[in-house]
Amino acid sequence: MNNSTIFDETKIDWKPLPDPDGNPAEHISMSILMLDEEAKIADVLFKFAGNAKILKHRHTCNYSTFTVKGELRIFDAQENLIEVRPAGTFKWGKVGEAHTEGGGAEDVVALFSLRPYSASAPIYEILDDHMQVAATVTFEDLMELNAEYSAQA
To answer: Which residues pair with 65 in a beta bridge?
Structure first.
């Protein structure tokens, strides 16, 4: 097999995703690939830890996912497994129910194309243990985070 066709996640500049308190969220890293300031579309690689779940959240805009490596697992708000997306799976999504996500037996890498089409409309709502909105993530937030990470480079 030609090694140039194998995805190598060690070549990605992974950054922490802040949780609602501003600390790095557990079990997730990110790499912002592209922010289209005119269309307000963000393409972001996320890496979820194997056998772990990230914070509960709700997508508040249309989006698509492509599982690059591993197995993306989707859990409902009660943390019951509802879907498994192995590498190579493309899925179009829209505003949805509260859920959490994580990796299967190994870390998973998935491309999320987030389409709020607005600078200030929420992309995600991060939920607390009582299913209340603890924080939101907007296109503007991703722009600020990207600027912060670029300044550190």
So the answer is: 91, 112
> pLDDT digit string (tens) for 14-48?
999 998 888 999 999 999 999 999 999 999 999 99
Q: Is 113 helix (H, G, I), strand (E, B) or coil?
A: strand
Other beta carbons within 10 Å of 8: 9
Torsion of CA 143, 144, 145, 148, to 10 degrees: 120
Domain ranges across the chain? 33-143
Q: The CATH number of 33-143 is which of 2.60.120.10, 2.40.400.10, 3.30.470.30, 2.40.170.20? A: 2.60.120.10
Q: pTM above 0.85?
A: yes
